[in-house]
Amino acid sequence: MPGLIELTRKFPPGLPSKQQILDFIQTSDTTAGRREIARAFGLQGQEKIALKALLKDMADEGLIDGKRTAFHRMGGVPKVTVLRVVDIEDGEAIAIPDSWQPDDALPPPRLRVVEGRKGAARGSTKGGPALRKGDRVLARTEETGSGWLAYPMKKLPDSAEALLGVVEFDGAGKGWLAPVDKRVRSSSPIADLGGAEAGQLVLAEPAGKSPRSGVKVVQVLGDPLAPRAYSLIAIHKFGIPHVFGQDTLDEAGVAAKLALDEQRREDLRHLPIVAIDPADARDHDDAIWAEPDDAGGFRAVVAIADVSFYVRPGSLIDREARKRGNSAYFPDRVVPMLPEVLSADVCSLKQGEDRAAMVCHLTIAPDGKVTEWRFTRALVRIAGNIAYEDAQARIDNGEADENLRNLWACWKALETARHARDPLELEIPERRVVLDEQGRIAEIALRERLDAHRVVEDFMIAANVAAAKALESKTAPVVYRIHEPPSREKLVALKDYLATFERKLALGQVITPGLFNRMLKDIADEAEKALVMEAVLRSQTQAYYGPRNAGHFGLGLGSYAHFTSPIRRYADLLVHRALVDAFALEQPKPKADLPPTSGLSERDHADLTRVSEAISMTERRAMEAERDTIDRYVAAWLSGHIGEVFDTRVTGVQKFGLFATIIGLGGDGLVPVSTLGRDYFNHDEAARTLTGERTGVSYALGDRLKLRLAEANPLTGALKFEPVDCDGAPIERRGDRPPPSARNKKAKFATGKRGRPGNIRHQGKGKR
User: What stretch of H or E contains 375?
Assistant: First the structure.
């Protein structure tokens, strides 16, 4: 390396130069310690001693850093090291060395984490969790011309969830961080309160490398039981970006003022297009219209917000949207994918306002099959924003106008095609948390499923299929929505479970959605049907996004993409951009300081794999956060009903007890095995049962039980139940029992062989 300072110390002639050592350290595929350097240059005896001195000089000069077992170039990164994820950019994790010491002259290098290569364990788009901010990984590193890369070898235990908690003080006045995650069992000592007070919800980080160093509070979030706190906990717990930078907001303001070129857009403002949405919808990105045609079918329009016109690839808004992947919806707030000036205003299809739209024109035959389609960029003026309930009421009461009646008539045709396709029909109830004006829980109920929901859903499915097939017709890139058939392992588990109901599932046949539908149709008992329906749902694979088509099993479709919600899903925005390119729908270059194209970026056009995987992960992240928040709201509501008895259903069976959920409300809780009575219960993992060895009383998956609510913790969402007798009183608990070793000796003596204590009763050798 030119300019290296040579010290006056003399070294043996066989010793490598400093430049040679630097080159070796930088190009070595493995860790480069003193032993590896000596072996690489064939050093022996006194040369090894001299090497030690040379390496010390190089460290003193600031050329290298590290210990004798692993050196790296000063300012560089060890070949194998622990990294901490500090940001997510363009769907990829950005990390820095976990042990980096702050230095104004030498900021930590930022490494792009490349998952799934060089032996790294890629997080599968079908299941594995993506890396998120705060995660720590052991990784191999590589310096390239474009910067540092990291290839994860192993994800290290994640302590980030335990760093969100509530400040508590013990009797000695010492502060502790009580976790808000029910999976975290222990509290952490607080080394630095950072001004936090008892009972406050805080964010904390490790105070040192050792767990015994405790944690330090870095942000006070406030009262954990205050309105809006439960969603805030989930947002921080799952690392969901929820604050837009000022530069992004400024750019969104510029984009919102882009003028629409009426000459380059199809003018559909004369059509009475309507948007049918939930009553509490925060944005409106789809609207529909239909009328009969001369062939006994229908002409239909599905108008979707033209988000791609305002959000250009490579812009600050686009980079933030890719990072979020989708909007996240909570009972008390929405974390939007796009700034509100776009998501809730300019892009939202509001009644009476001229809006830019990407429009799918459909020709629908009398049997509901789509025979023609075309895509245009258009101007629309929404005739009405109607709530599902209101639309349904107008139809039911005979008060619907011609437009709504046409929509329902067209839907009947689409429904005919749907029945012929025989998609998976699982009516799983959805919990809805209703808050009052102060943000307190007014009601928790199940969301009613109306024909109005099905009308909109079938129009959207038709447009989504058309988008996928349109892009295929042009051999253009497609982000497919993929739902693969159930795996054999899950089908075997389902077969075993159905056997407990004396029902059969033959695995030798072709598994189709219709097979499950017929199975459910044959079950007369509603309670049993609900259990089987849940089991069928658990057997399904998780849907994901990808550029290689594998069909949509649940919908019974060969090609399916998401086109209809670009305000809240980045996948739909990518499909819009692909349509812009494939059908030459580009608009004139905007005068504003924004990227000129509204089509796909060159990188996405070449390969959609990376972004598809990233948005599949962010979708699962949002779903987990939304479910986590609902659980906390349910626990908060139930905390005022401690001691009451509820009708529940067993949803899980483990050696330590049962998991049960309240029927019609949700809220999963634990029933410890110690509360089931004085008997000793044996766990059969295959049959998923707990059976009393003396009484023969058995608890199985799906059982309906009356359980008393013993505990409800709003901070963690955890519930605890206990069984009751016929009078509603808790049953007598199991008393002290002999240690396991003593019980095993009794079993061996009584049965003549080792076995479960239940063998005693089975052999008729008497009772314990």
Answer: strand 370-381
Sequence ranges of the chain with CATH classification 1.10.10: 18-73
Distance CA 583, CA 565 (A): 20
Class of domain 161-224: mainly beta
Could you give the count of Cα atoms lying within 13 Å of 720 in the half-sphere of its Cβ?
Answer: 12
Burial category of 690 from C-beta neighbours within 10 Å (exposed 0-12, middle 13-18, buried 19 and up): buried
Q: What does DSSP assign to residue 641?
A: G
- Cα separations in angstroms, 259 against 256, 342, 609: 9, 14, 33
Residue 522: partners with Cβ closer than 8 Å, 6 or more residues away: none
The Cβ of residue 94 has, within 10 Å, a number of other Cβ atoms equal to 18
Low-confidence ranges of the chain (pLDDT < 50): 1-10, 74-75, 102-105, 117-128, 159-161, 735-768
Q: Measure the CA–CA gap between 72 and 69, rounded to whole angstroms.
A: 10
Range 138-164 burial, b when 16+ CB lie within 10 A, else e: ebbbbbeeeebbbbbeebeeebbbbbb
- End-to-end, the C-alpha distance of the chain in Å comes to 82
Question: What is the reported pTM?
Answer: 0.76
Pick from 250, 245, 276, 460: which is nearest to 360 by CA?
460
* Number of C-beta neighbours around residue 395 at 10 A: 18
- In 3D space, the residue among 28, 35, 74, 31 whose CA is nearest the CA of residue 52 turns out to be 35
Q: How far apart are CA 699 and CA 689, in angstroms?
A: 5
Q: How many CB atoms lie within 10 A of CB 586?
A: 16
CB-side neighbour CA atoms (13 Å) of 672: 12
CB 586 within 8 A of CB 198: no
Question: What are 318-342's pLDDT values in tens digits?
Answer: 999 999 999 999 999 999 999 999 9
For the segment 574-593, what is each residue's pLDDT rounded down to a tens digit?
Answer: 999 999 999 999 988 888 88
Residue 632 burial (CB count, 10 A):
26
Contacting residues for 681 by C-beta, under 8 A, at least 6 apart: 673, 690, 691, 692, 693, 699
Tokens of 193: 């309160």
CATH 2.40.50.140 in the chain: give the residue spans.
Answer: 642-737
Query: d(Cα 462, Cα 416) in Å, to the nearest integer?
Result: 13
Fold of 642-737: OB fold (Dihydrolipoamide Acetyltransferase, E2P) (2.40.50)
Query: Which of 167, 166, 177, 160 lies closest to 236, judged by CA?
Result: 160
Q: What is the pLDDT of residue 451?
A: 96
Query: How is domain 80-155 classified at the architecture level of CATH?
Result: Beta Barrel (2.40)
* φ, ψ for residue 7, nearest 5 deg: -80, 165
Helix (H, G, I), strand (E, B), or coil: what is residue 180? coil
CB 441 within 8 A of CB 637: yes
Kindly provide the residue ranges of all beta strands, DSSP E only, lying in 145-214, ordered along the sequence: 147-155, 164-169, 175-179, 188-192, 201-206
Amino acid at 722: E
Quote the CA–CA distance of 691 and 652 in Å, as a whole number.
Answer: 14
Q: Residue 7 CA to chain centroid, in angstroms? A: 57
pLDDT score for 66:
59
The encoded tokens of residue 366 equal 């009398």
For residue 38, the Cα-to-chain-centroid distance in whole angstroms is: 49
Q: Helix (H, G, I), strand (E, B), or coil: what is residue 312?
A: coil
CA atoms within 13 A on the CB side of 673: 19
- Joined together, the tokens standing for residue 372 give 């023609």
Options 2.20.25, 2.30.30, 1.10.10, 1.10.3860; CATH of 18-73: 1.10.10
Of the candidates 161, 164, 158, which has an alpha carbon nearest to the alpha carbon of residue 203?
A: 164
Long-range contacts of 487-494, Cβ-Cβ distance < 8 Å, separation of 24 or more: 487/541, 490/538, 490/539, 490/540, 490/541, 491/539, 493/539, 494/535, 494/536, 494/538, 494/539
